[in-house]
Batch of 3 targets.
Target 1
Amino acid sequence: MVGVRRLNHQAFADELGQHEATGTGLLRDRFEEKSRYVIALRDNRVVGMLAIHDKAPYSIEQRLNDPAMLDAIPGRKLEVRLLAIDTCHRNGMVFSGLLGTMIENAFREGYDALLISGVVERVAMYRRLGFRELGPPVESGRARFVPMAMRLAEMPQRVREDIRRWRSHRNEG
């Protein structure tokens, strides 16, 4: 967990300013016990990660005017959190690998919807992936997050094709 906590600190304390720096360079997530992690390794070092969990309460609830609106999203929900990629690996396949692995698992495990709190500066990217805003941006430390959701059945075809290409690339390597 040290690599996950290190990258969590780098992204959410040092870079985004959502959390205060800890002095140790490590940041423990409050949902760590109920989360599963998808990680990318390079030379045995965590260079990318995202956390997923399906147990309420969801962190997105803090960013909604009415958390009960999540009840209007039918089916099984999977919250995707803490997407972080080491700055040296942001132009490679790390993002595709994390996203592709998470989405493959979500489909295989029977989830119907993904929930995220997207960083305001990246909302356009999340929209291209098929996410839609559930409310206005909400401040958290120096960062601002937008509560968003996507029904997996409504994922854009081009995203599905990108995942297929990533899978082919992965299987060739």
Target 2
Amino acid sequence: MAWSVPPTAAANMVFTASQWNQGVRDNLAETAPAKATSSGGIFVTAGANSIAQREIASDYINAAETETSTTYTDLATAGPAVTVTTGPKALIWLSTQINNSSTNTSVMSCAVSGDTTQVASDGRAVLRDGGSGLDRRMGITNLFETLNSGSNTFTAKYRVSAATGTWQRRRLVVMAL
């Protein structure tokens, strides 16, 4: 007897190995525990009736570095940077200790490369606007919603409106979705 969907089980019903595999084993293989390939991941929907394991990754650079560029660029030590496999979305956290030598703006944003190309932008930035003096520890969370699924690298980028910006304790966390 062949069927595409096994009937409701009844007392004393006998299933063939093929029916058991199709109706029970194959369904259990679609659960999160069966799909997990490493610890520390999360599961997201990857389409109708489909899940995928994604990771949360981070990078941290402690050293204080300066820059005077008014367009987004790398510091002497580029990054932090994280490469993860994403679906069409990723949630990122940026944080830094930030300052400017004058009363100008210092900015830290994030660019994406790999299967997606997106430049750093002020709309997704941590910024200290005006006022020199004490460094400020600041952070921001952003949802990237227009990624191409695949391997994407998220890299912090920096700029100032004028004068010299200083960034220290730079952290980037990416939750691939």
Target 3
Amino acid sequence: MRFNKVTFFNDYKGRFGPMKQTEVNGLDFLLDQIEADKEFAILRQVAYMLATVKGETGVFQPLKEKRANPKKQPALFKQQGKYFPSGFFGRGYVQLTFRENYRMAGQKLAGTVIEVQNKDGSKRKLTIEKDTFVNEANLVMQPTVAYQILARGMREGWFRRRKNKVPFKLSDFIKEGSPPDYKGARNIINHPSSSADKFAGFAEKFELVLRASLVT
């Protein structure tokens, strides 16, 4: 799936408003990844994935989760206490949390070769192994890694499961030939709440932007 970037960004700004350069850079990278990702065949699934990144990060860049203020956000602070002390707090486009999920991502991506940027600006090739992200959690912040976790995780159902252990996947809510359930798709990443409507609204706009800029 390929998109005309000039059309995409013009339409995006018309629907969502002005953008910071950080957002432009982040979306530009994601469009390149989507074009190279042959597993995406349904435009609406791409729309919801991008809506998820917008809702989770706001800037289309991998982010680290911030510790909540115990006085202003006591419930969130308590929830974060289950994983924050271990160092496996939210990272990436979808805020991957808990040691077992970092290990799961490594297992799923094992054998994948990625280019990693070091702190000094140099780059190195790295082959992902099952414990790579457990041993070096910050690798989840690498955009190429964050994209794989985002895209494969949403398609394959890495993040949340039903009571009967069946995972929530993009194909459960967005299928070819059927109206998309953008609101229900929030189940893939998080329990539906008031944010489900916001994410659905983002997806509806992204669908229009993608349709306008799709290169056929």
